[in-house]
Design brief:
244 residues, mainly alpha, Cytochrome Bc1 Complex, Chain D, domain 2, 0% strand, globular, Cyt_c-like_dom_sf, signal, Cytochrome_c_Oxidase_Subunit, C-type cytochrome, heme
Length: 244
């Protein structure tokens, strides 16, 4: 009788163990990059799509090189934002590149941003700077680097559509005052520090007023930029060589 009772106990234990293993397997979070970056979606939205009428920008579809550079900058403290600095503090370069490539490959529909209510003269001034630059200050047009449709350029120049005016203004201000830095030569620091406060406001308002499209970053290997830029080492190197 004791032997039979022991067999029954062993059988029940085995059954319970198998059921627990099945439940554990069903509840286990998949070990995928999509699952690992769920911490990003609270601010940047599902699939890095962005969040409507909120400060945090879209990640999806931006060039992998650009996203990688920003992740490294946050980790190393060259770009200041405490939650990002904390989240990335101990992640190695290879893992940050995997994160960047994950978001770069996504292409969810863009969010429609709220209409911008700014004076017509300010928007016109912003359009002039974005499309023509400021020759007197040797500031190139935004479209020469970020693309005619402002969708960005591979491998390291981001798109500028779908960003709130206050976000664009804050980033230009961060470059102007050295709070945000990029790989040398830091072309955006040079450009932003040459802009006046009214010019920053005009550019920010105009970019925020543009309709958001699904434009993808341009792929133009060897494209020469109007100014040397560390985020585009190939293009800037060719520019420097051509000027020798």
């Amino acid at each position: 009788m004791k032997f039979l009772t022991s067999l029954i106990a062993i059988g029940l234990a085995a059954h319970a163990g198998a059921a627990l293993a099945q439940a554990t397997a069903a509840d286990r979070i998949p070990d995928t990059m999509e699952a690992r970056v769920q911490a990003c979606t609270g601010c940047h939205g599902a699939q890095g799509r962005g969040v409507e009428n909120v400060y945090f920008p879209r990640l999806a579809g931006k060039p992998a090189g650009y996203l990688y550079n920003q992740l490294v900058a946050f980790r190393d403290g060259r770009r200041k934002y405490v939650p990002m600095n904390y989240l990335l503090a101990y992640l190695p370069d290879a893992y940050l590149m995997r994160m960047a490539e994950h978001f770069a490959a996504l292409n969810p529909p863009p969010l429609v941003q709220p209409a911008v209510s700014r004076p017509a003269a300010q928007l016109a001034e912003g359009q002039r700077i974005v499309t023509q630059g400021i020759p007197g200050k040797k500031i190139p047009a935004c479209i020469t680097c970020h693309g005619a449709e402002l969708g960005g350029r591979e491998p390291g120049i981001p798109g500028l559509l779908g960003l709130r005016a206050d976000y664009v203004s804050a980033q230009l201000g961060a470059w102007r005052f050295g709070v945000r830095t990029a790989l040398a030569p830091d072309c955006m620091q040079l450009i932003a520090s040459s802009l006046s406060e009214p010019e920053v406001a005009a550019v920010s308002a105009y970019l925020a007023s543009l309709p958001v499209t699904a434009s993808r970053p341009l792929r133009q290997p060897g494209m020469r930029l109007p100014i040397a830029c560390g985020s585009q080492p190939q293009a800037s190197t060719q520019k420097q060589e051509a000027s020798r």
